[in-house]
Write a sequence for this structure.
């Protein structure tokens, strides 16, 4: 039996095991992955490259794991074959006999609860009669020893032959295949692109909810090679370090991204065009677009993005990466910020509504560099980003405060707003946005009035310095605020987090 025929049979078996109908697009088997480069990539290659020695001294790089990934993607049949090699260290105080990873694509299975989107939007997420997609793990090992594993819902559990003691490092290997239908969500695509938000299995567990974004608690290093047909290009998190034409009809694109929350990417057809600008802060901002409406606004979008990125750099701290990429897409939400890449809704961009884009650019600072827990404290990411970006639209702090107050007063006539509600407790998208962006902005405005503008600005810089590449909590943020303010804020916290 030939190797190619073996792959066809394996993939047919995978589709059957996952309940996929017989007419699913399986004509082209996955391609054997290209060789993976094993040498570690130094942090200096993709992070802090333009920052002074004084700024580097202020940012402590925490311990982290490393992912070396090789993917082969067939955009026509929407299939993926991949291998992930993960260098993992047990940083807990106890031995571990299992390792859990998050697998986001499987949350779209009909049996999975909760759904990764609000129930009322199911018809918009699934735009075709194709199967819902699957992520299937075919093999797993630890230090070259085969592992037993289980996938239940969105969690992949590896059962270890013996416990991993604290501070011990091991090498994990996962071999997997996937089918990604044209979903209008964080993971999916259309006839012209496939976008992969939260696609790769990452150390977790990772919580997925109907609203908000998946949260990865640990920043990590990624070295990713993606093989596609030569007709398609790939954009992704981090630096594109290598592109090779193989056998005249395949393209291998390699990325290195260090100390990021996730590796996100998209595979684009040749119809996409690119426009870019180097921001005043030195960040390269790229826009990939397809529609005429956005083509006509490309310069406007890039100029606005430059203003926002420069503003956040001044208000919070120097962005430690070299690029931000914006992709026109058909996702359910207005915009979705992943590490270094933003999936922006085509309709909002095309009609000139850039507020969601501003929030997503700001979230590069408040939710990706700083690991604000998007599951427990969404307001600490998107709410803080929303408050900071509103300064761009008002001449004075008083005008901004009045706008925020009036907006929240209107929302409170219709909705029950409480910052104590986590992403798990809200299933309505309107309520989630109203609570964790606009109501959160009112809280930050009140905090700024309580502390004074100068202390609040100092708080933002100290918060960025202390929690870059780490995970921050509500208590962490307010402890810094009390330290700078010199007074207890218990009454303020009680008022806003009842």
């Amino acid at each position: 039996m030939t190797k190619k025929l073996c792959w066809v049979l394996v993939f047919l078996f995978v589709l059957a095991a996952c309940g996929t109908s017989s007419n699913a697009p399986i004509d082209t088997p996955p391609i054997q992955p290209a060789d993976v480069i094993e040498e570690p990539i130094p942090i200096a290659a993709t992070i802090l490259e333009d920052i002074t020695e004084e700024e580097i001294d202020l940012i402590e790089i925490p311990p982290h794991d490393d992912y070396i990934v090789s993917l082969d993607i067939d955009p026509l049949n929407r299939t993926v074959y991949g291998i992930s090699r993960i260098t993992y260290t047990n940083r807990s105080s106890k031995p571990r006999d299992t390792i859990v990873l998050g697998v986001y694509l499987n949350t779209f299975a009909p049996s999975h609860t909760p759904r990764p989107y609000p129930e009322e939007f199911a018809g918009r997420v699934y735009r075709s009669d194709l199967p819902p997609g699957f992520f299937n793990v075919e093999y797993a090992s630890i230090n070259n020893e085969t592992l037993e594993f289980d996938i239940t819902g969105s969690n992949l559990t590896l059962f270890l032959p013996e416990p991993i003691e604290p501070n011990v490092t091991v090498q994990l290997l996962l071999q997997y295949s996937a089918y990604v239908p044209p979903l209008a969500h964080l993971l999916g695509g259309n006839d012209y692109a496939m976008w992969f938000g939260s696609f790769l299995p990452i150390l977790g567990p990772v919580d997925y909810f109907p609203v908000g974004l998946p949260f990865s608690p640990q920043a990590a290093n990624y070295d990713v090679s993606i093989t596609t047909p030569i007709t398609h290009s790939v954009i992704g998190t981090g630096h594109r370090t290598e592109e090779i034409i193989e056998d005249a009809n395949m393209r291998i694109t390699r990325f290195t991204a260090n100390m990021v929350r996730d590796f996100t990417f998209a595979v684009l057809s040749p119809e996409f065009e690119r426009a870019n600008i180097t921001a005043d802060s030195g960040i390269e901002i790229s826009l990939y677009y397809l529609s005429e409406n956005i083509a006509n606004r490309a310069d406007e979008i890039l100029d606005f993005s430059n203003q926002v990125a420069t503003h956040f750099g001044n208000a919070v701290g120097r962005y430690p990466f070299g690029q931000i990429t914006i992709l026109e897409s058909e996702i359910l939400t207005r915009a979705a910020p992943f590490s270094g890449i933003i999936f922006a809704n085509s309709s909002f961009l095309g009609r000139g509504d850039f507020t969601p884009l501003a929030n997503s650019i700001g979230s590069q600072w408040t939710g990706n560099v700083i690991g604000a827990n998007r599951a427990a404290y969404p307001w600490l990411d998107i709410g803080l980003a929303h408050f900071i970006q509103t300064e761009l639209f008002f001449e004075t702090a008083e005008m901004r405060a009045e706008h925020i107050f009036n907006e929240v007063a209107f929302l409170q006539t219709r909705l029950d707003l409480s910052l104590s509600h986590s992403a798990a407790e809200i299933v309505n998208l309107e309520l989630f946005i109203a609570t964790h962006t606009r109501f959160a902005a009112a809280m930050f405005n009140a905090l700024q009035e309580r502390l004074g503008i100068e202390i609040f600005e100092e708080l933002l810089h100290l918060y960025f310095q202390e929690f870059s590449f780490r995970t921050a909590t509500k208590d962490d943020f307010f402890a810094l605020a009390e330290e700078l303010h010199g007074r207890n804020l218990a009454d303020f916290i009680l008022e806003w987090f009842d």
Notes: The first helix runs from residue 3 to 17.
